[in-house]
Amino acid sequence: MSPAGSFQGADASDCAEAIASSSNAFRGWSQTSPLERRSLLLRLSRLLLQREDEAKRIIRAEIHCSEDWAARNVSDSVALIEETASLITSNTMSGSIPHTELKDSAVVAPIAAGNTAILKGSELSPRTHHFIAQLFVEAEFPPGVVNLILHRPEDAAEVVETLIKHPSIRKVNFTGSTTVGRIIAQMAGQALKPVLLELGGKNCSIILPDADTAKAAETILQGATLNGGQICMSTDLAIVSREVADDFKTELQQALSKKYGTSYKVISSNSATRSRTLSDDAVAKGSKVTSSFDSSEGHSNTQVVPILLIENVLPTMEFFSMESFGPMLGVVVVSDEDEAILMANASDYGLSASIWTKDHYRALGLARKLDVGAVHINASTVHDEATLPHGGNKASGFGRFGAEWGLREFVQTQTITLHP
């Protein structure tokens, strides 16, 4: 049940019907010309622009985000659809890969490459996913090119297993937690299906002695709290050189004071509980935690979480290794660059990182030592746009979304050898 009403939960028979529909549509859709696919995608982007206000209202109602974050989601979606449409008729699809930086999305990329797709929506945001699927209908994509499946939480295992094991499903694309990603990968492996996984992150910002600590503190705190910290690229840890640790902490406290009274309604009460548990563990093991509002005031809504700043995080604390997915930021103090790299790479995750220094050459050298998918210099770990590839290493998944790399994830290769 959503605030706007109820949605019918799918079962195995609904999955079979969706797969049959997409399989039938594939026969015709895979043979459409690149020009036709490009035209339909551009129509899709125009429709999304026309219905921007409606899309933002739905997003804000379901994931409790700010107006700015909802607007960014819509504008980024429009940009990636348009970029993908432009790639369809470029030499990306004909055999050579130019050195450009372009992007697609989980649904748009396979469709652009001539595949059909089943979008399995989340029960936490059904209206948002239904809105996306409906846009394809209104853009006049052929029936079955994009199908939507929604299900109850208790039916998730059956629905996912049914979809993955069906012989007509040729590839699995999952965005979500690392825990669920492992289950998806195991199922896909048993069925010998390739997977594209975009999972969690324990993203860090490294602050070197010559960094602009004021700018770094403000940007890093923003990267930790944007959308309540509920972004795969959110900054969890600030790894700061001991030489500037005191200055950085002072700047961070000043940045936090500007947000006093701020709190976020996170996606579920479980998310809020995780934030409180991680904070309590850090305090029990010696950390100082500063909140963006007086904890004695309390709050009646169990989904509301304040900004939590955790100083002097140690590897023994759960927060050091566990993705918070909430408005939390921890500070780790290190002696030198080698220790900073060691701390950053100690994580099981490997999605996004940033380095703060005035020396760009120094930053580039350090960036190559980080086992992550993307490194940003003097910028937030939260950075993704229509012109950038996106993906991680280790427990953050594998494969890439975006640009020609993303399109090639969904292009089936075939070798034909002729003998005289």
Automatic annotation (TrEMBL):
One of its GO terms (molecular function) is succinate-semialdehyde dehydrogenase (NAD+) activity. GO terms for biological process: gamma-aminobutyric acid catabolic process. Residues 5-92, 106-416 form the Aldehyde dehydrogenase domain. Keywords: Oxidoreductase. The keyword Oxidoreductase applies. InterPro entries: Ald_DH/histidinol_DH (IPR016161), Ald_DH_C (IPR016163), Ald_DH_N (IPR016162), Aldehyde_DH_dom (IPR015590), Aldehyde_DH_Superfamily (IPR050740). Gene3D superfamilies: Aldehyde Dehydrogenase, Chain A, domain 1 (3.40.605.10), Aldehyde Dehydrogenase, Chain A, domain 2 (3.40.309.10). The keyword Metal-binding does not apply. This is Aldehyde dehydrogenase domain-containing protein.
